[in-house]
Amino acid sequence: QVQVVESGGGLVQPGGSLRLSCAASGNIFRIFAMGWFRQAPGKQRELVAVGINSDNANYADSVRGRFTISRDNAKNTVYLQMNSLKPEDTAVYYCHVDVYTSINTRNIYWGQGTQVTVSS
Question: Are 8 and 18 in contact (CB under 8 A)?
C-alpha cells in the first residue's frame, strides 16, 4: 500500500501565492509520475500539472505560466508553486501518484485533498 499526504492549502487573496506539498510513502518500488488534479464544486476533477520529473511536465492551459510543479525524487515528494492566483483556481487539490509497487505492478494513488480558496 502507498500513503499519499498533502499539505499547504488555505485561503489567499487574488494575485497571491501558495505552495502545495505532497509526500508518498509505503510500498514504493519506483514512482513513474507525480502531480496534481483539482475539483471545484459542481465540476469534474481536472488535471493541473503532472510530470515524470521537474523538467518534463504537462500543465493545464489555465495554469501554464502561473503554476510550477517540481519533484524531489529522493523524498518521493512533489510540490506545486501557485502564483498569481485567481478566484477560478478555488478547488480541492488532489495529489496524484503513478507508482510501481513491484517491477511489473503499477497503480494510481490519490491524496485526501487540500482546499485552496482564492477570495478577497
Answer: yes
